[in-house]
Amino acid sequence: MRGQSGGARNPRGSRARFRGSRAECPSFERFIDGLECGDGSARARLRLVGGELFDNLATHAAPLRGGMSVRFGRNSAGRMTLAFTFRSARYRAWLKAPGPSLPSWSPVEKRWRGLGLIMVRNLSSRVEHRAGPSGDRIVVTF
User: Fold this and answer.
1) Domain 14-141 falls in which CATH fold?
2) Which is more confident, 98 or 52?
3) Which of 73, 86, 72, 70 has the alpha carbon at shortest distance from 16?
């Protein structure tokens, strides 16, 4: 993780940059733990939702050089937001790829797959994907 700014001192929120590998999940969790986000329930939701998205992006998007930027802040209505910004050569293709839309059992991994994004939708108010010429952005509102 590189560079982080404090939430209360920076009106735009707190930011951190990661290379975008799954090995950085503990660093991402430390970033979340350092945020001024209110009560323990809010932090737990940020950790669960953010951790799931961080892991999925590191696994499926494989962010290109420059990695992944994560920003925590509040929108104009005062609601918490968590935004992931990254560039990826394969993320948009992964979004469009056919695959199970419901949770399914993986005999190879001996575990259920496909429950993470359901959890993300249930623990947040809104999840948006914004594609742009300079990259992709996932914005979660709580």
Assistant:
1) Heat Shock Protein 90 (3.30.565)
2) 52
3) 70
